[in-house]
Amino acid sequence: MLPTQRPRRNRKSEVIRDMVQETRLTTHDFIFPLFLIEGQNQALEVKSMPGIYRYSADKIIEEVGQCVELGIKTFAPFPSINDALKDRLARESANPEGLYLKTVADIKRQFPDVVLMTDVAMDPYSSDGHDGVVDAESGEILNDATLEVLGQMALAQARAGADIIGPSDMMDGRVAWIRRVLDENAFSHVSIMSYTAKYASAFYGPFRDALDSAPKKGDKKSYQMNPANKREALRELALDEAEGADMVMIKPALSYLDVIHAVKERTHLPVTAYNVSGEYAMVKAAAQNGWLDGEKTMMEVLTSIKRAGADAILTYFAKEAAAVLRRG
Ligand code: PBG
After folding, report:
1. Is 121 in the pocket of ligand 1 (CB under 6 A)?
2. Which domain holds residue 176?
3. Which InterPro entries match (predicted)?
């Protein structure tokens, strides 16, 4: 018998395909991560992330300016800190004169309308390369001692002008802790985007190269989540909601589309996904080899993350994708 249902009718021309398209990317969806380094007039490409640079403070202003021109309005800066400034307690992270906070303040001064989501986690400043305080004897990650550090870091970032605080550390209770510290210091208007389900993923490799932030010993499995677990993400979601998160995030994105979807179905908060460094590197590497069409793959990847339920996407592709969207 011939088919009575013909879904292909809705695909028969570009105009019809456009009309019935369910998911559409816009530049408003993107949050662009930025890597900062000390010095002047520096733009050093990250080897494992072609097209992504570590910029000195002066250069970052140019980069933000170009992105704003393309319609990107939200940025997530991360610092690469000199080894000499790293210590067990990540003290440099609360230094208002340090690279990170000075640059954050500078970006806000030059671009008052830009939204900055600052990263709260010890790893870029930690001599141990961990997101928490490491017990010198046992090597354990000390949750509650870490909360003190995170609270001070978040407060210093709010003072520097951060719009959104993004705790990426996965310590227990940190959203409530940071919320309280912010509120007690008259920063109740500063938002928290919680890294709700952050997995202990192999996809962070290029990021750790960029910031020289890999753990000196051990791994992050005692705080980041097991990639095999989805229900645990929903438990973290419930806690972050109860603790006062304004937005939640799933990280990485591509191997976790089911988690994005499950979280989206259960929360009324905006859901963000972090399309991480390794996901970027995979596409770039294949494209450089001529094995994939880099641009089409990029747009498909981003569209699929949005289709899964992400309201916003942190992605190293932001600038390139914004240029594609502008071209139409
Ligand atoms: C650590 C942090 C990591 C990333 C963002 N914040 C790496 C890690 O947990 O080791 C990774 C982002 C990426 O890979 O793009 N606080």
Report:
1. yes
2. 25-327
3. ALAD, ALAD_AS, Aldolase_TIM
- Take residue 227 and report the two structure tokens written for it: 């990639």
Q: Please work out whether the CB of residue 131 comes within 6 Å of at least one atom of ligand 1.
A: yes
Active site residue 198: yes
Respond yes or no on whether the N-terminal peptide bond of residue 252 is cis (omega within 30° of 0): yes
Is the Cβ atom of 80 under 6 angstroms away from ligand 1? no
* pLDDT tens, position by position, 142-195: 999 999 999 999 999 999 999 999 999 999 999 999 999 999 999 999 999 999
Q: Is residue 251 annotated as part of the catalytic site, yes or no?
A: yes
- Whether 14 and 4 have beta carbons less than 8 Å apart is answered as no
Rg (CA), the chain: 20
The CATH number given to whatever domain includes residue 294 is 3.20.20.70
DSSP one-letter code for 126 = B
In short, whether 208's Cβ falls inside 6 Å of ligand 1 is yes
Annotated catalytic residue, options 86, 198, 284, 306? 198
91 in a domain, yes or no?
yes
Range 180-188, long-range pairs (CB < 8 A, 24+ positions): 180/151, 181/151, 181/152, 181/154, 181/155, 182/154, 182/155, 182/158, 185/155, 185/158, 187/155, 187/158
What is the distance in A from the centroid of ligand 1 to the CA of 207? 6
User: Quick check: ipTM above 0.95?
Assistant: yes
Number of domains in the chain: 1
